[in-house]
Structure formats: C-alpha cells, structure tokens
Amino acid sequence: xxxxxRSRSGFTLIELLVVIAxxxxxxxxxxxxxxxxxxxxxxxxxxxxLKQIGISMHGYHDAQGYLPPxxxxxxxxxxxxxxxxxxxxxxxxxxxxxxIEQDNLARISQYNRSxxxxxxxxxxxxxxxxxxxxxxxxxxPSAPGRQVDYGPYFAANGLNRGALPLxxxxxxxxxxxxxxxxxxxxxxxxxxxxxxxxxxWFGSWTANGLEGAKTRLEHIGDGTANTLLVVEIAGRQxxxxxxxxxxxxxxxxxxxxxxxxxxxxxxxxxxGTDATGTVNRGGxxxxxxxxxxxxxxxxxxxxxxxxADGSVSFMRESIPAATLGAFITRNGGxxxxxx
Length: 339
What we know:
By secondary structure, this protein is of the alpha+beta class.
C-alpha cells in the first residue's frame, strides 16, 4: 500500500518578504513616536533643572537679601596672582552652588579671588578641580554632549599651558537687552538697554565684600511672573544656528567661547539676529535662531525659560520680539497677558 505523506507547512519566500515589509513599515511608524516621547522626557527634565535653579536663586536671595549678580569684578584686583592683575570674578551660576547641593564645589571655590587665578583654575592652569566639575543640573539632556576647552582662548592671549577643560552650562542668567534690541526688534516698545533684566546688575568685590545696585525681588516692578531670570542657551562652546552646527571656538573661529558655568560671560543680553541665525545680525529673530548670546534650546518650536517667581515655561519661537523684550525687563512697565 502506498504510504501517505504530509507536506510540511511553512512560509513561502513571498510571504516572508511581506512579513518583513510589514514589520519595517511598523518600525517606521513607531520610530517618530518613540523619538517624540524621548524628546518630551528630555524637555521635562530640562525644565526640572531650571526649576531647581529657580529654587536655588530664591535660596540665595533669602540668604543674602538680594538676587545674585550675573557677575562681578574686583576693585582693586586681588594681589599675588601670578597671572597678573586679574579683576574678573565669578558668575551667578557659581554663586548659587551652595543652594544646588554643590557645597563641595562652593567650599573650594574662592569667591574673593579672581576666576583667572591658580587658586580657582583646574590643571593645567591651577590646582582647583571645581571649575572642571560638571553639575548635572546645568546640563539639558536635549543638548549635544561636549567638552568645553578654554585652552585656545588663553593661548591666543599669551598663556599657553595646554588644554583647560571646564564644566559647561546650558542655562544662563538673563542680563537684559542689548542697546541695539529696541531699534532692530521693537522700535515701538518701551524696552530700555543693557542691564534691564532681573539679574542685570553687575557687582563689585571690594574690601567690604560684594557691592553694587543689588536687585531684590521687590525691585521687580513688572512682577516676578512677568520677568525672566534664567534662560536656555544650550550647546556652547559650539556654535549652532537653527539646529545646524557651525563650528567650535578656536582662534580661527572666535565665536561662542562663553560656555563654562563659572564664567560670568555666559550671561544673555538679547539683541536679535536674522531669520537664519547667522552672525551678521540683520533683521530680528529672538528664540532658537542662534546660541550666540540669544535664547536657544534643542527642542522643537521653542526653549525653556525660568521666571523670577520660580516658575518655568516654554517660550515659543513665534513670540513677538516686543513681547520678549517685555518679559526681559524688570521695570519696563509693559502690560502682559497671561499667555
């Protein structure tokens, strides 16, 4: 008798290709959603960092009786500095270290000595590791990872001791609007120039300690909810325009040195740029156009900002320049809506 045989079941080549094609389509559909979820999480963490910085700013205010200056100089310069008569002091982000649970860095940072002094500089320029430390709170996870090196700057100024890696910040204190902002961006506004932001005062360290026109919360006449304190300006020491990498600071490309959290030159003085974010400064574009002294985040459609009342909001790229100017000034007298 003939033996009956069963045929083996399985996929044909065409069926296998169809399955692979369906899987590829599903992956293609899911990837953008996954990326959006990741970016939403990164943006939220970025916002939380700013929230903690706001709490720290208020903690500094409670302890000292005033908000920290965006920076300060020494008058006169401290003596005994082998690098000469250096007057540059520390940044606001350095002054608030004790309030962001970085007491270990604050204890070894000598605020009564210049930031350009071996007692405050890491190897190869000094013996203090504080400046090269990286507080996680100063990093936005949406921004590209990078290592900041101030060595080329010092080499260009006659002090070449090799690399000078420093801790970076993606957030910076709002000093105010540049003197050209009103004429370029908001000719019909009441925006005044330069040091008109909540952290727009510049201190002077004397024998009596930190002095100057200290800003207290009650001095913010426009209301703390209507005044910016700290903003995103991410990606420096590299230069970006509209998400496009342009270059990293060097002697041949002297743009965007200001990136280290201890350097008071990280402050933001908004003046507007052109629509493409190039450095010729024609026209007016104020958010996410360039990270060269403008508000800039690696998020879609805007950047995170911290207000003086401690709240964090998302500032859209479409914000009118005059409205941004009103949010920057602490005593501009502008009337802003809840939006």
